[in-house]
Design goal:
five-stranded antiparallel β-sheet, binds flavin-adenine dinucleotide, 3 domains, Uridine Diphospho-n-acetylenolpyruvylglucosamine Reductase, domain 3, binds 2-acetamido-2-deoxy-beta-D-glucopyranose, globular, flavoprotein, Vanillyl-alcohol Oxidase, Chain A, domain 3, 17 helices, Uridine Diphospho-n-acetylenolpyruvylglucosamine Reductase, domain 2, alpha+beta
């Protein structure tokens, strides 16, 4: 504590002198700020200066260097890899204005930074940082429903389970994730919900969003105002276009928790059913157009050494039963156990928590049209990969999420997103590798095998990848049909390319 305080005092001195010299000029190119600072004061980094300047403005309850809350945030990320970082300080905004102060100091001192909402990113460093400023939304977790506008306003720190619970009594919901522990970062990548076939991508449920740009300026973007280009870019641009501080979402009228308007649940199958399930999934993608149906297929390789595979599916229908013309294949394939019943949307959104912690995680994405050969090729390469690296991994999943045509056309009037409708039904594929507890970095040979798998199981032509479930090596933006418009929008809102140079996230912009 004492040492920290002394360091702080030293930093304050630097800050005060630098604030007076830098405050007015707001340098465009961070390396200018960093270079002049480090040549004068060898030990003081840009992030220390930014932290001290933010603390000077916002106080020590908003900016923390250590302590129990700091430690809890550091250990918060779902992926163990991201819990090993140690930010120079953590900023806990209580209001958008705090984010503005933080961002303007980060910008003027040329500090590295990261933003953390629900902490579920599986990409190394996308929600954590060492030698940089971490902005945590742990104190901005409010949810409120306005019946006059029929919208739900969420602050960025809320987890979907809590947001859905807060508005359920009004008979409404939001298009969150399929696991209750996920946070609002999901919106900025697109967002796949069990009710997305009915209501569209989660991002398309945004009516309006407040955004703090890299310079600290705050703007309100919606589909029709002068920031409509930014509005579109944010919906699929992930963390590259600014920091969202308020989301106003169109409410979905899904009923209260007593309204058991859906039927479904989960079915577990043995490994011997895998090929039949791969085929059934391909056919479902190709043929099912009824937006009342929801499905996710998880082909799991668990308890590796030796690989013990099984498949679990979650399937739902808005109605009193599972229609056999939609789910017949899945209902006739031999199963191990089933759990099916009438459910409310609230029940559905709490079936999977996804809150487990303690293991390093790695994602990879692909997109497949509904073709049996494509699915079998991907499944076989996935199993070859898991068998080759069974001693390096704790478990691995191949997760199939249908993106039916209705996911693009439902509520299209609300504005377009950055991902770009490819015009065909397809499946978003997520490979999820789970490393054993003691593993703190992705082993190079496993990563090489994983990159091979991603190329062997690559996308069908013309399909966009899903940014929220990609590997850090994948250039997702390039797969968006309107990539050039996205680049233009990025150049407009961040002309000095501060974000891509100072925060980890998707490559290629
Ligand atoms: C167990 C599990 C289940 C999942 N299930 C689904 C699912 O059903 N559907 C689906 O679509 N996806 C799903 N995902 C993927 C999920 O959408 C992404 O992991 C998402 O990015 C998580 O958001 P977060 O807020 O929890 O995480 P974070 O790691 O906090 O945020 C994710 C990224 O967004 C950035 N970010 C967050 N908030 C802001 C903000 N306000 N402004 C600017 N940048 C911000 C962060 O810096 C980070 O790069 C799942 C992931 C996991 C681990
Ligand atoms: C930033 O400044 C450095 C050093 O002066 C220079 O090499 C670099 O090209 C600049 N980058 C941009 C994007 O202007
Ligand atoms: C927080 O939510 C409550 C209701 O849930 C609402 O009355 C209040 O205005 C909200 N505050 C903010 C700052 O959004
Ligand atoms: C966008 O904001 C403007 C200005 O506040 C408002 O007039 C317009 O109705 C909004 N559009 C939508 C789609 O909410
Ligand atoms: C899966 O589909 C392939 C290609 O259509 C077919 O050859 C194979 O017999 C099917 N297998 C099962 C178990 O359904
Ligand atoms: C699961 O398997 C059991 C036993 O074979 C069978 O009776 C049941 O119909 C199956 N359930 C589903 C939903 O397919
Ligand atoms: C959005 O979709 C829902 C469900 O299909 C529908 O009830 C609602 O009317 C749609 N809203 C708009 C504005 O299209
Ligand atoms: C199986 O995976 C290993 C490890 O990546 C690789 O060397 C091998 O070529 C793969 N086999 C096939 C048939 O793809
Ligand atoms: C691409 O984006 C530009 C700018 O937003 C837009 O005018 C154009 O219609 C878009 N094209 C497609 C195919 O979506
Ligand atoms: C910042 O960069 C942009 C684009 O590179 C340039 O047009 C602008 O003049 C720069 N501003 C300053 C203050 O250097």
């Amino acid at each position: 504590m004492g040492a920290n305080n002394m360091l702080l005092c030293q930093i304050f001195f630097c800050v005060i002198s630098f604030i007076t010299t830098l405050a007015q000029e707001t340098p465009n190119n961070s390396s200018i700020g960093t270079a002049s600072v480090s040549s004068d004061t060898q030990l003081v980094s840009a992030s220390s200066l930014a932290c001290a300047a933010i603390q000077l403005d916002l106080g020590s309850s908003v900016v923390e260097y250590s302590g129990s809350e700091y430690s809890a945030t550091v250990q918060g990320p779902w992926s163990l890899f991201n819990s090993l970082d140690r930010p120079t300080c953590i900023v806990y905004p209580r209001a958008a204005s705090h984010v503005q102060v933080a961002m303007s100091k980060i910008f003027s001192f040329g500090s590295q930074y990261a933003v953390q909402a629900g902490a579920h990113s599986a990409m190394v460093g996308w929600n954590s940082i060492s030698d940089g400023v971490l902005i945590s939304f742990a104190h901005m977790t409010n949810t409120s429903y306005n019946p006059l506008t029929d919208t739900v306003t969420v602050q960025p720190g809320v987890h979907w389970g809590d947001a859905i619970a807060a508005v359920e009594p009004y008979g409404v919901s939001v298009i969150g994730g399929r696991a209750s522990d996920i946070g609002t970062g999901l919106l900025l990548g697109g967002g796949i919900s069990f009710i997305s076939p009915l209501y569209g991508w989660s991002a398309d449920s945004i009516k309006e969003v407040d955004v703090v740009l890299v310079t600290g300026e705050s703007v309100t973007a919606n589909a029709t105002n002068k920031f409509s280009d930014l509005f579109r870019a944010l919906k699929g641009g992930a963390n590259r276009f600014g920091i969202a501080t308020r989301y106003e979402l169109y409410a979905a009228h899904t009923g209260t928790k007593e309204d058991k308007d859906w039927f479904g649940g989960s079915i577990v199958y043995p490994e011997s059913s895998s090929v039949a399930l791969s085929n059934a999934s391909a056919r479902y993608i190709r043929e099912v157009t009824d937006p009342k149906a929801g499905l996710i297929v998880l082909m799991q390789a668990t308890n590796l050494t030796p690989v013990d595979a099984n498949v679990i599916i979650y399937l739902f229908y808005k109605g009193g039963s599972l229609p056999t013309n939609i789910f017949g294949d899945f209902l006739s394939i031999p199963n191990t156990s089933t759990s099916l019943s009438p459910l409310s949307y609230y029940d559905i959104s709490n079936l999977i928590s996804g809150s487990g912690r303690g293991n390093g995680q790695q994602f990879g994405a692909s997109s497949w049209t509904g073709d049996e050969a494509t699915f079998l090729n991907g499944y076989n390469h996935f199993m070859n990969f898991t068998r080759t690296f069974e001693t390096d991994l704790l478990a691995a999943d191949l997760i199939i999420s249908p993106i039916p045509r209705s996911q693009w056309t439902a509520n299209k009037s609300r504005g377009l997103n950055a991902i770009g409708d490819p015009g065909v039904a397809y499946a978003a594929i997520n490979f999820n590798l789970i490393y054993p507890t003691g593993v703190t970095v992705i082993p190079e040979r496993v990563n090489a095998g994983f990159q091979l798998l991603l190329s062997q199981a690559s996308s069908s032509p013309g399909l966009p990848l899903y940014i929220n479930e990609c590997d850090a090596s994948q250039n997702v933006f390039k797969t968006y049909p309107n990539f050039s418009a996205l680049q233009k929008t990025y150049a407009k809102y961040d002309p000095s390319r501060f974000n891509v140079r100072h925060t980890a996230g998707l490559i290629g912009l």
